Amino acid sequence: MSVDSRSPIRSLRRSPKEPERPDYSEPDFSSWAARLDDYTPAAHAAPATTAAATTPAAVVAPVAVVAPVVEVAPTAQALDDRPSLEEVLEKLLSFDGALCVAVVDSETGMILGSAGSGVEIDLAAAGASVILRARLASTRALGTNEKIDDVLISLTSQVQIIHPLPSNPSIFTYLIGDKAKSSLAMARYKATEADPLIRL
Amino acid sequence: MSNVTESLERLIELAGARSAALVDSSSGMVLGHAGSDAGLEIAAAANTEVVRAQLKSMVNLHSADTIDDILITLSTQYDIVRPLAANPSIFLYLAMDKNKSNMALARYKVAECDAQLEL
Questions:
Q1: Is the pLDDT of residue B109 over 50?
Q2: 20 to 30 Å CA-CA from A57: which of A2, A70, B27, B112?
């Protein structure tokens, strides 16, 4: 690694020595540079021999490097035993004739996660969000407490399922399948089954 | 072939049916209805929004598809929205009690009604 990847650090170290500009006080990066030495795993490997003479901070580095790396490992493990969103999406995609699945925020129309292909999912999700919002607005206008369980849309060549999460009705799972190959009822069941697994 | 009133009367005879209507999605106006539902006008307007949103979405996607039907499951009710094959801006709307009705059968009946309807 070392000479190339260390060059940004060197430039950071040099910066305080640059002539001060009257209208802008240069931040003091010297403490950052020391910390970068701590967090760059290779900072102690090659530089220890090559750059030790010029950079005294590198001598301290080898001891400090080990600690942060060890600490990162436990936090990376999920405490929640539910599968990740990607895994749930892959599982959802297993219904017959599935083209595309996504988890979408209906308030913004943006996709939180998607899997599959064959459909312009960004546009389709935005359209589905409008449908859901329209329907939610009208149930509110009716003054009832009716919740939307799902909306099944049959087109000429596709079936689509919009399934709001019971825990957060503004987020919905969105399934698109090939009409000739998929069973609407099965896809709907899969969407319902995935509800408790979805972790956002 | 059958006229609007006959078609809607036939739909409302289904087990669990609450109300049936024929709605113009370009204006949201109810062209004909059967059954008693206080919120029919609002429900029709709501489904108008749904149909419009879906049509717009398909235009955005440059899709050549047409809408066959839209089934909406609520906590106590099923809604079936079916744009007419002959004129997709007009749709049949059937609201049913979730506990008393059979959605698959109702969906089939609505499709049949669409094929026979004469405006």
A1: yes
A2: A70
Last residue of a domain, one of A12, A43, A76: A76
Closest by CA to B111, choosing from B96, B95, B92, is B92
> Does residue B98 register a pLDDT over 80?
yes
Say yes or no: B77 contacts chain A, CB-CB below 8 A.
yes
Q: Which of B37, B42, B51, B54 to mutate to test the interface with A (most CBs of A within 10 A)?
A: B54
Q: Shortest CB distance from A124 goes to which of B42, B57, B72?
A: B57
Residue B106 Cα, gap to closest chain A Cα (Å): 14
Please count the structural domains in chain B: 1
Residues A147-167 have pLDDT tens digits of 899 999 999 999 999 999 999
pTM of the model as a whole: 0.70
Q: Does A109 touch chain B (CB under 8 A)?
A: no
pLDDT by 10-residue block (mean), chain A, 200 residues: 53 56 60 60 50 48 49 50 87 91 93 90 91 85 84 93 93 94 91 88
Statement to judge: residues A27 and A50 lie in one domain: yes
Contact A155, B51 (CB under 8 A): no
Domain containing B112 equals 4-116
ipTM of the complex: 0.88
Does the beta-carbon distance from A154 to B54 stay under 8 Å?
no
